Amino acid sequence: MLTRESHICLARWAVDCAEVVIGHFQVESSDERPREALRTGRRWADGEVRTGVAMKASVAAHAAARGVSDPAAVAAARAAGHAVATAHCADHCVGALRYAMKSLKAAGMDSGVEFERQIARLPEALRDQVRGRSENAEW
């Protein structure tokens, strides 16, 4: 069972993962929904908004992803959507990481180094769980 403290830690971490690539979306669109989703994710982790607000922000970020065609931008918006959705279900943190890696790869960047950097940022007790759900992923 995941503790509330660990859930909040994963939510903050997921937002950090998505923030690494949000610029890929912002280059393609002035739509603020993915960036707002990241702000909402942080606000949820700080106890300032309820989970329902976070879920609406997630849906909005995914809608924004459908509004662009560049693969790096699409993946960046989806990373933001999963990051804020971590408020609802901690497993979404893995989606934030996976989509962030997809965004990097689509932008012609090395996702392997960033993957390891992000995993290393997690508390040791959570690393193996997240790594195990993320390795062998297609990105």
Outline:
This protein has 139 residues and is mostly helical. The protein is built from eight helices and no strands. It has one domain (4-134).
Task: State the main characteristics.
about 140 residues, mainly alpha, 8 helices, globular
Describe this structure in words.
This protein has 139 residues and is mainly α. It has one domain. The chain contains 8 helices and no strands. The chain has helices at residues 4-19, 22-28, 33-45, 51-65, 71-85, 92-106, 111-121, 124-134. Helix 1 (4-19) packs antiparallel against helix 3 (33-45). The chain is globular and about 40 Å long. It starts with a helix and ends in a 5-residue tail after the last helix.
How does the SSE layout of this entry go?
Blueprint lengths: L3 H16 L2 H7 L4 H13 L5 H15 L5 H15 L6 H15 L4 H11 L2 H11 L5
Helix pairs in contact: 1-3, 1-5, 1-6, 2-5, 3-4, 3-5, 4-5, 5-6, 6-7
Number of domains: 1
Q: In DSSP terms, counting alpha (H) and pi (I) runs of 4 or more, how many helices? A: 8
The CA-CA distance between the termini, in Å, is 29 Å
* Beta fraction: under 5%
